[in-house]
Amino acid sequence: MMRQIVLGIEMSDADREAGASGPDLALYIDHADFALLVLGADGRVRFVNQEGCDLLGYPRERLIGRDWFETCIPEPDRADARLAFRRSLERGDAEAGAAETVLTGSGSLRRIAWRSRVFRDAGGAVLGAVRSGAAAPERRPRPHETSWSLPTRENFSARARLLFDSCRALVGARAGFLTVFEEGGGALILDPGAGGRDVESSLSALVGSLRAGSYPGDGAAIENDLPGSRWGQVLPSGGSALGNILIAPLLFEGSSLGLLGFAGKPKGFTGDDAALAAVFADIVALAFNDAEIYRQLVDSERRYHTLAEIAPVGIFRTDRSGDCVYVNSYWSAITGVPLEEALGKGWERALHPDDRDRVLARWSDVLGGKCEFQEEYRFLRPDGAVFWVLGSGTRETNPEGEPIGYVRTTIDITERKRDETALKMVNKKLNLLSSITRHDILNQLTVLLGSMTLLIDDVRDPDTVRMLARSMDAARTIERQILFTRDYEEIGVNAPRWFDVEETVRVAASGLPEALRILAADVGDLEVYADPLLQKVFYNLVENSLRHGGAVTRIGVSAEPSGNDLVLVFEDDGAGVPAGLKEQIFRREYYVHTGFGLFLSREILAITGIAIRETGTPGKGARFELLVPGGAFRYR
């Protein structure tokens, strides 16, 4: 099918010097702005044009005769690529456009988008494949760039003209056309050659008829007797001005994007002409599709740029190595650093000196794939103003899922930080007032309880003794409530952190010597993320076992997986909790001696999402289950 291509490009210099006839296909192809590669059925390179050499980074002599897959395909992809090539030859059909990673002459990797057609000998046997291609985009265009090397509609037209002229010369046609269906009415190229107005009007009528849907199939077609064909019925003078036509559809992924046509070949078109036109039509279709994709990408980037510029947050984009490639105007307004100065590593100068090392270390971890970026830090503007920001970042990938950069948002939290500072100051004053007041009340309660204790020893009247006892109970209740306010005031004051469970339990139990003798903690290297008052939680649980469990001989702490979560179990072999009180014991208003302990325990645990419940069997012991969510526990 493709004999003319292969024979033409493999014609030796000796053949040419000996006067071999026909157009010099290799000369035309070498001046094309697309890569052309011919592979034999054995996978060896039989021809590559100059654009292909430039794209692959090899001189021609280092490719011709070499095994394509051993030379240019990276080892991890080699077997799959060779298998796909063999299967395409077995099917004998065209390969759809696909991006392939190649190993260039410099040792670097490059993505190339190929279209491929098989070629055959005169008897129809498959000899190999002809591939046309171009570099696949490694990244999307950046909105701030002033010059993009993109296949826009403008340079698509220039490329299409070059392809059209080359193909017309190779097939020996006098006239021709190129029409793209999405380009509106008429033809992108309508070239009557030297045929004058009669040829031009016939070509125009033919294009109009073809655009209206009269083209019969999805392959190249030849009509060497145009006046006697059905097309001749719609053309001026039956198409006699054209004589014959060759039409090839611009096919991409099963859809026809347009038509490439030629007319007026003196001796008529051949099957090889049709095959050649089909290859050029494929290349035009690929170029048009690339131009359309890039147009959509550029439009998308421009919309993104518009949204980024009006967004009330700073937006910061980097390449794969973490160098800045774009910041929006809001980011520049916060930092006082314009885009031009922020590019590369320039953005780092905006970081506050006291935060720079921390932020850059975190950013280094992000680039190494260790974590996502989520950090509060400060910018120091050139005018001396300080801005607090919350920075959040995520990886940006290409359609293949490969990382191409990072996008970070920067939210100005300066006002929030000021409010937090003011709130901390107010809380500090309130806590100081509360502490002084609580201390004074407890001192007065101590005096009151001491006086009533002395008084009750001297009173003989039973009614008076009962009244004094009730008063003392009320005073002790007031004392417990005052102490409760002290404990509750401490919850959430300090940031949560990781705690070794076994060590924390043992430290908590050390305040109750009798508990250490019966405590059995078996959780290994388990750590949980909790409020620093976690030790008080375990103290309350141990104390409750000793105080309310009766004859407790064992207190155990263990851990059980529960899906993505973890159940931390605290249990004893005492009296247990009555069925009707399993939830009430966590309420503030319910207590036996000091019920505030379990209420506070639930509040402390809830800060980091840990739930607590009692699931023991009455008479067989208490069992408290702490449900620790995924992410709030780990093993060292």
UniProtKB/TrEMBL annotation:
Keywords: Kinase, Phosphoprotein, Transferase. SMART domains: HATPase_c, PAC, PAS. PROSITE patterns: HIS_KIN (PS50109), PAC (PS50113), PAS (PS50112). InterPro entries: GAF, GAF-like_dom_sf, HATPase_C_sf, HATPase_dom, His_kinase_dom, PAC, PAS, PAS-assoc_C. Its EC number is 2.7.13.3. It catalyses: ATP + protein L-histidine = ADP + protein N-phospho-L-histidine. GO terms for molecular function: protein histidine kinase activity. Residues 373-425 form the PAC domain. Pfam families: GAF_2 (PF13185), HATPase_c (PF02518), PAS_3 (PF08447), PAS_4 (PF08448). Residues 534-632 form the Histidine kinase domain. Residues 21-92, 300-370 form the PAS domain. This is histidine kinase.
